[in-house]
Amino acid sequence: MMDDDYDRGDQNGDQTDACVEPHVDEEHDVDTEDMLRHIEPEVLLGSAKGLENFETLKKAAKDCMYEGCGKK
């Protein structure tokens, strides 16, 4: 029978704590909310461009690439 706790160790079999808090370096501490507020417009514009590119690729996939090739 397999032990239900098999995934709680590292590759060496040492026990690890599943709820480890990430170490935050006080010198490099950043305000994540402030950072996200500044990059949000870029992310939204990038998403819009990505959607436009996706629609172009979707249309190109439906079109014939070569003359004489019919859709199957």
From TrEMBL:
Region Disordered, residue ranges: 1-31
Protein name in UniProt: Uncharacterized protein
Organism: Setaria italica (Foxtail millet)
